[in-house]
Amino acid sequence: MSDVPSPVAKTPAPPKPLGRSMKLLGGLFLALSAATPASSVFVIVPDVIAQAGTGALIAMIAAAFIALSVGQVYAEMSSAFPMAGGEYAIVGRTLGPLLGFAILGLNLLNSLLAVAVLSLGIGEYLGPLAGGLSARSVALIAIVGATLLGVLNIRTNALVTGLFVLVELIALAVLAALGFGHAVRSPLEMLAHPVTLQGAALAPVGLVGIGMSVAVATFAYDGYGAAVYFGEEMHAAPRRIGRAIVAAVLITVAAEIVPLTAVLMGAPDLKALLGSKSVIGDFVLATGGPVLQRGLSLGVALAILNAVIATVLLVSRQLYSTGRDRIWPQWANSPLVCVHPRLHSPWVATLVSGGLACGLCFFDMRFLLKLSGAGVVFVYALMCAAAIWGRRTGSSAHGLHRMPFYPWAPILTLIALAGVAWTAWADPEEGRVGLIASVATGVLFGLYYLIFIRPRRDWRLQGPQGDEDVFD
Hints:
This protein is mainly alpha-helical. It has helices at 24-35, 37-52, 56-80, 87-94, 97-126, 135-150, 154-181, 187-192, 207-221, 237-266, 270-274, 279-288, 290-324, 330-336, 347-360, 365-371, 375-393, 408-425, 431-453, and strands spanning 195-198, 201-204, 461-462, 468-469. The two termini are 24 Å apart.
C-alpha cells in the first residue's frame, strides 16, 4: 500500500461533479428497480413460504412494519445527506468515519453479491431459452449489458428501469388476479390459524417458525433506500429524495403482500403448494396454464435484469464516492472519479463495478447466497443509530424530511432487527455464515480506516462539488 498518499500530500482539486438531470420520478423508478418486487415475489417469497407455510403472510406483514420504519429513517437521513456514497456518507457524517467505513464494506460486499446472484438467477430462467447457454454465460451477458447501459446518462437509465418496473407491476397484477379469481380460503383464516406442511399433513406453525422467516421477508423488501445513491444527480434532492424513498417502500410492500395473499387464497391444493419446489410457478401453471407461466417467467427475468442494472448503478456511485474521498491509492482514486463529459456518469466506476460482479459469477451460487443477506441487518441498524444520533447532535437538522413517530420508529426497528439477527444465528447453514461474513467485512474495512486513513490528518469526507465535512 505504498501508493497511499502520505499525510503531507497535497489535496487534489475536487473531481468533476455528477450531472443533475433527474427528477423525483426517476429516483422512484431506480429505487423500485433495486427493490425489484416481482423477483422478490417469485424468488425470495417462496423461501418465506417454505419456512412458515401460510404464516408467510404474517411474516411479510411483520417485515413490512420494519420496512416502513426503516424507510422513514432512510427518507430523513437521505434528505439531510443526499450523496452518492449512500449509507457510507450518512453514517460517516453522523456516527464517525470508522463506522462509515464498516458500512461501506458491508454495502460493497452485499451489492456486488446481489448483482452476481441476481444475474445467475436470470441464467436459470433464460438459459434453456437461450440456446442451451449455461447460467454463468447468461449471467455474464446480463452484467455486461447492464454495465454498458449504466455508463449512459442517469436519466436514460431511469427511463429504461421505469419501463421494466411497469412490466414487473403488470406481472404482479396478473398473479394477483389469478389468485383472487380462484379464491378458496379466507386471509383471516390464514392469519388466525397459519399452517405448514409436515410430512404429508398440514400442521400448525408456531411463532418460532414464523419469526425465523421474518429475516428472509425483510430481505425481500430491501432496495427502496437505493434512491440516496442518486441524490447528486437529482434536482432539488433534499426536498424530493425523502418522498421518493417513502413512495418506493409503500409500493414495494403493497406489490409483494397483495400477490402473496392472492396466491395463498387461490391455491387449489394447499398441500401441493406448500410442498412445491417452485411455489409461484406451479401456482401459475395450475391456475393460468403453461403459456401464461412462460410469459410471467419472462417478466420475472426482465425484473431481475432491472435489479441488476439498478445495483450496478448504485455500486458505481459508491466507488465514485470512495475515489472522491481518496480512500484508495491514488492510481485507483483518479479513474474512479472520472465523469463522462457528455453523459455525466461515473463511467470508469461503472465499468469497475461490472467487472467485479462478473468475477463473482465464477463462484458457486450457494456459496454466494450464504454470504449475502445478513448484512442488511447491520446496515439498517447503523442507519437507525445514525438517525437517533443525528437528531441528538443536530448533525442532520438541516434535512427537509422528518420521520413521524420519532424516536419510536428507529428504536422499535432496532429491537426487531435484534430479533432477526438472533433467528438468523439459529440457522448454522445460512444465517450464521452470513452474519459472520458481514461482521468480518465490517471489521476489515474498519481496520483499513484505522491503519491507512486515520493517520492522514488532512483526510476529509468530500461532498458534491467540493463541499466538505471535517472529522477530528
